[in-house]
Amino acid sequence: MKYADLAEIYKKLDVTTKRLEMIEILIELFELTPKEKMRSVIYLTSGKICADYIGLELGFADKMVIKAIAKAVGKPGNDVTKLFHKTGDLGEVAETLIGKTGQQQLGAFFGASGSDQERQLTVDEVWETLHKIAKTEGKGSSTKKTNYLLGVFSKASPLEAKYITRTVLTQLRLGVKDLTIIEALSRKYGEGKESRVIIEHAYNVTSDIGEIGERLAKEGIEAIKRIDIVVGRPIRMMSAQRMGTAEEILEKLGGKCALEFKYDGERVQAHVNKDEITLYSRNLNEITDMYPDVKGALKRSLKSKKAIVEGEITAWDPETEQLKPFQILMSRKRKYDIDKAMEKIPVKLFLFDILYKDGESLLKKSYPERRQILESLVNDDDVIVLSSREIVNTAEGFEGYFEKAIESGCEGIMAKDIRKETQYQAGNRGFLWIKHKFDYTSTFADSYDFVVVGGFYGKGRRKGTLGTLLMAAFNPEENRFETVCKLGSGFTDEDLANITEALMSIKLDKKPKDVVSNLNADVWVIPSLVYEVQGADLSASPVHTCALGEIKKDAGIAIRFPRFIRYREDKGPEIATTTNEIIDAYKRQRLLKKQDNT
Ligand code: ATP
User: Fold this and answer.
1) 570: closest CA among 524, 527, 543, 530?
2) Which pLDDT tens digit goes with each residue over 75-121?
3) Substitution candidate for ligand 1 out of 353, 414, 439 with most atoms within 8 A of CB
4) Count of beta carbons in the 10 Å neighbourhood of residue 502
């Protein structure tokens, strides 16, 4: 397959934001793609080189790309840098310069002389080069990486150079999300609506859209039906909805439910295969190396040889026997000197679910059945503990348990449905779990996880830093980020310096196409960082675009008096608070206000 064909598809995807058009273009792409290339084509189109959980990174910096472009076209690096400063997009710089000047000689140097046919780049070549780049480490690696890139540039057309550049910088940003790919795959290879459910389930248990695409193309939907859990490979995690009062929650859950403490730490999915133990974070990143104590404890405490369990790792003070706040746990998260950190900040893992045991997937079992299996599996241990749990059927019982949770240092409780159909909903945020936090009870204050899409320069003391951030909710139906507030308080000076540095490293030259905003930020960034924000209130807003037209014509919903609470490094932009959650919160708040007035 020629890379030029892929580049032409990217050009079409680049100019559309409409989900249906994207699906059509993706179907066209699948028709062009040989079966055995589906995996690489799907990863490349998502701007990746492997499934996220593998963690293989390209590690390319702007200045390395500038060097490669300069060498490729025989110009001084300064000229390329100047052009970069003018356009702000190295992809465009590569498109302007590469494939035009001096390319012939460069091609000859890299052995690419010959007919146009021979000079044509293939998807395989680009794919293999990207993998070589990612695997190159150690001394002299940036020169080696730059030379690999130069090798592909020697054969690239301007359009190809643009997309290769964006890919190595992990800035392809065609706006193609996994769910859009799933929709396109099910239309191309499926047999009706049911296929989508089957494909989505397979995706949720493998967390690997490339593999699903390849197997679908090669073996059809029947093979996808057979896809099941593999220990060692993360399962997309189940999430919770939020609701206000005890009465509301009890009613939603049929008058009776299980309550568990909502521990304030880091969610972990532990894959145990005899002595091999892998821990995954909420984002499905591997975090095993950060918790050797948890790894050791799981070995001691679990009675099963092969299992997948979930829980929350929380910092713990053994002297006072108290839970410690989330921030303390975060200060332990580091790659180096982990032994010292482990001693200084001990942890506990509170287990609350089990997804697999000794050859059997437990996803379809009800939550009470899973809990029973979990309880029978865990030996008491210093580190591994079962989450605290109680069944309640009255608002008083609910409130009493909630108070107990807050007194114990938790951020609230999780109410869990205990009726029959309560299977583990991988990758889904439903009402089988409902979170109830302290903020929801006292005022209208609530906390959300929003994505930073841009920033505004500060004045006075904040001059030179991005003192105000433009925050957005994620709209999965429309595949885009919609603004909800300008965030300018709750930061320390140190936070602001760190945030400015982080944002400048993901700066874009213009508003990304999957961001909907009426405001013009001073700096636009790749929507990738998630911060927790507390707001006092929700209101209709003519400025913000979240849920535009949903509650009022020509108005969106905004968060009033937002405050920065914390960084959510464990969350990616696609598991941030959604537009629908904001609409629900707005409606809930209106209802409460009405009740207050009567
Ligand atoms: P939040 O931002 O409120 O922590 P979240 O968006 O990370 O939530 P949700 O699924 O909405 O994730 O809320 C559930 C989270 O609460 C889980 O991801 C997990 O980290 C944490 N948690 C703590 N205790 C429990 C428990 N007993 N059962 C389930 N989840 C728990």
Assistant:
1) 530
2) 899 999 999 988 888 999 999 999 764 454 455 455 554 555 456 89
3) 414
4) 15
367 Cα–ligand 1 center, Å = 16
- For ligand 1, atom 20, the nearest C-alpha belongs to 267
Rounded distance between C-alpha atoms, residue 10 and residue 32, angstroms: 13
Q: Give me ligand 1 centre to Cα 440, in Å.
A: 15
pLDDT mean over 416-443: 85
> Of 145, 188, 262, 324, which is the active-site residue?
262
DSSP codes of every residue in 15-63: T---HHHHHHHHHHHHHHS-GGGHHHHHHHHTT-SS-GGG-------HH
DSSP 8-state symbol, 176: -
Q: Is 177 marked active-site? A: no
Tokens matching residue 2: 């020629």
Mutation test of ligand 1: which of 239, 348, 389, 566 has the most ligand atoms closer than 8 Å to its C-beta?
Answer: 239
Q: Which residues of 230-243 are buried (b: 16+ CB within 10 A; e: fewer)?
A: ebebbbbbbebbbb
Is 90 exceeded by the pLDDT of residue 206? yes
Question: Which pLDDT belongs to residue 114?
Answer: 52
pLDDT on residue 118? 56
Q: Rounded mean pLDDT of 217-245?
A: 94
Residue 334 CA, distance from chain mean position: 20
564: Cβ–Cβ under 8 A, 6 or more apart, which residues? 487, 489, 490, 491, 495, 531, 532, 533
What is the rounded CA–CA span in Å between residue 573 and residue 577? Answer: 9
Strand locations in 462-579, DSSP E?
466-475, 480-487, 507-508, 515-516, 523-525, 530-535, 537-541, 556-560, 563-567
Query: Of 482, 371, 483, which is closest to residue 417 (Cα–Cα)?
Result: 371
Using N-to-C axis directions, what is the helix angle for 77-87 and 62-73, rounded to 10°? 120
Contacts of 553 by beta carbon, 8 Å cutoff, 6+ apart: none
pTM, full prediction: 0.85
In the DSSP assignment, the letter for residue 411 is S
Which residues line ligand 1 at a C-beta cut-off of 6 Å?
239-240, 260-263, 267, 282, 312, 352, 387, 414, 435, 449
Edge-to-edge strand ranges of the sheet holding 429-437:
239-242, 429-437, 412-417, 257-262, 389-392
Ligand 1: nearest atom to the Cα of 241: 11
Q: What is the pLDDT of residues 291-307, one digit of tens each?
A: 999 999 999 999 999 99
**361/383 Cα distance (integer angstroms):** 26
CB 438 within 8 A of CB 406: yes
Long-range contact set of residues 190-193: C-beta below 8 Å, sequence gap at least 24: 190/221, 191/221
Rounded percentage of the chain residues whose pLDDT exceeds 70: 94
Return mean pLDDT, the chain: 91
**Structure confidence at residue 198 as a pLDDT band (50, 70, 90):** very high
Q: How many other CB atoms are there within 10 angstroms of residue 50's CB atom? A: 17
